[in-house]
Design brief:
single chain; mainly alpha
C-alpha cells in the first residue's frame, strides 16, 4: 500500500509544484497573448482538472476519494490565488478560483 501511495501521490505533487511555479511568474514576464475574452478561465479549468484527476488517483480507493480530492484542489486553488498577491504584476482573482474549482470538479 505504501508503494502504491508513493507512485500515485508523486504525480499530483509534481503537478501542484508546476502550478506554483507558473503562478510565481511576475505579471510583466507573462507572454502577452491575443486571446478571446475568458480563454484564461479555460486554461485555469484545464490545469485544475489535471490536478483533480491526479489527486483522485493519489487517494486510496474508497467512497470519499473524490471529495477528498476536490477539497484538496479547492483549498490549493485558494492558496494559489492568495500567493499571487505577493508576485509583482499579479493579483488574486475570485473568477480564476471559480474556474479552478470547476476544473477540479
Amino acid at each position: 500500500m505504501k508503494r502504491y501511495l508513493q507512485r500515485a501521490i508523486v504525480p499530483a505533487l509534481v503537478w501542484a509544484a508546476f502550478l506554483f511555479v507558473l503562478s510565481s511568474i511576475p505579471g510583466d514576464e507573462l507572454p502577452v497573448l491575443q486571446t478571446p475574452f475568458g480563454f484564461d478561465k479555460i486554461v485555469h479549468a484545464f490545469v485544475y482538472a489535471v490536478l483533480g484527476v491526479l489527486t483522485v488517483k493519489g487517494w486510496p480507493p474508497g467512497r470519499w476519494m473524490f471529495w477528498l480530492s476536490f477539497i484538496f484542489c479547492v483549498v490549493y486553488a485558494v492558496t494559489d490565488e492568495l500567493h499571487q498577491q505577493f508576485i509583482p504584476g499579479r493579483i488574486p482573482d475570485v473568477w480564476d478560483w471559480v474556474a479552478d474549482t470547476v476544473g477540479a470538479f
